[in-house]
Amino acid sequence: MTVTSGELRVVGGRYQLHRCLHAEGDSELYVARDSQLDRPVLVRVFRVSLPDEHELRARVGRRARDIARAVHPEVAPHVPFDEQFRAEAAKAAELRHPNIAPVIDWGVLSDGDDEVTGCFVASEYVAGRTLSELTSRGEALAPEPAAEIAVDLAAALEAAHEAGIVHGGLNPGVVYETPEGLHKVTGFGPWPVTSRTPERAAYIAPEQVRAFIRRGSSAARGEADEQSDLFALGAVLYRLLTGKPPFVTEDGHPDRPRRGMHDRLTWPSDLLEEASERAEEKGDNAGEVRPALPGAIEAVTMKLLARDPGRRYETAGEVRAELLRFLAGDEVVAETEMLETLGTTEWEGEEDRHAEVYGPSRSGLVLTFGVLAFVALAIPVLAFAHTLNPFAWLFGPGASSEVPEVLGLTQAQAVVELQEVDLDAEANFAFSNDVTRGQVIGQQPAAGEVIAHDTTVVITVSRGPSIVTMPDVIGLPEAEAMTRLEDSGLVTQVLRVPDADVAAGRVIEIDPPAGSQVRGDTLVSLTISTGPPDRPVPDVVGGAFEQALLEIGQAQFQLGQVLPVPNALSPEGMVIAVSPEVGSLAAPDTSIDFLVSAGPPSTRMPWVSGLTEKEALKELAAAGLEVEIVQADGYQADRGRVNQQEPSAGSDIEPGDAVTITVGAP
Question: What's the pLDDT at 479?
Answer without folding.
Answer: 93
